[in-house]
Write a structure and sequence with these properties.
With about 150 residues, this protein is α+β, with helices and mostly antiparallel strands. It has helices spanning about 25-40, 65-85, 105-115, 115-120, 125-135; strands at about 5-15, 45-50, 55-60, 95-100.
Length: about 150
């Protein structure tokens, strides 16, 4: 038997960073993400975000790649959001996403970071937040592609 524990902080945004995740119904979206994650064998520790983006802190099984997970969640939620009247202006998700790995020692820090998104974004734009995450992890930012759909 293999023993594997992976923790990912995943960030993705709405198409063209449109503010289409309504605050009145964001919890319904988060519940759908959690349900899809459970169906894929993952475990969500925290979901949060703003009207233009979502953060997910999740553990995934070793049989599921991060790319498969994100594609599945984005596809499933996009179809659901377009079919419900709760998100009338939603046109889809942006093409890119960020995924960052953490250890179990970082778990509470990331959960709190996601929990405090509303306060955090009173001071910091999504573009600045995303740039900071990419830089923190040493990811080269290609400006011609950054936040382009």
């Amino acid at each position: 038997m293999s023993y594997i524990q992976t923790y990912y902080h995943i960030v993705f945004r709405t198409y063209q960073s449109e503010q289409t995740i309504t605050l009145d119904h964001e919890r319904e979206l988060y519940a759908v993400i959690m349900e899809q994650t459970n169906n894929l064998g993952g475990k969500v520790f925290r979901i949060g975000g703003m009207p233009d983006h979502v953060h997910i802190f999740v553990s995934l099984p070793s049989t599921l790649s991060i790319a498969q997970y994100v594609q599945s969640v984005k596809t499933f939620t996009s179809k659901w959001m377009k079919a419900t009247p709760m998100f009338p202006n939603f046109r889809g998700w942006g093409h890119e996403y960020g995924a960052f790995t953490y250890s179990v020692r970082d778990k509470e820090t990331i959960v709190n970071y996601i929990r405090n998104q509303k306060e955090h974004h009173q001071r910091v734009s999504f573009a600045d937040e995303y740039r900071a995450l990419l830089r923190e992890w040493g990811v080269e930012i290609k400006e011609e592609y950054f936040l382009k759909d």
